[in-house]
Amino acid sequence: MSLMTVDQVAEFLGVKDVRVLRLEREHLLNAAEKDGGGNPLFNQEDVKKYKEIAERLGGI
């Protein structure tokens, strides 16, 4: 399992960091775990699946 930081997810999805944090807070994109600083880390496969679903529904 490859984990992605908030910055990496934001770049992959083409959105700002605050948007990724909001998606996580609203449980639309679930963090796999937290790093030492309490920042969420996301499973790369979950992020890919989220992007596919979001694109099918009309965008992120």
From TrEMBL:
It comes from the Bacteria. It holds the Pfam family HTH_17. InterPro entries: HTH_17. Residues 3-52 form the Helix-turn-helix domain. This is Helix-turn-helix domain-containing protein. It comes from Psychrosphaera algicola.
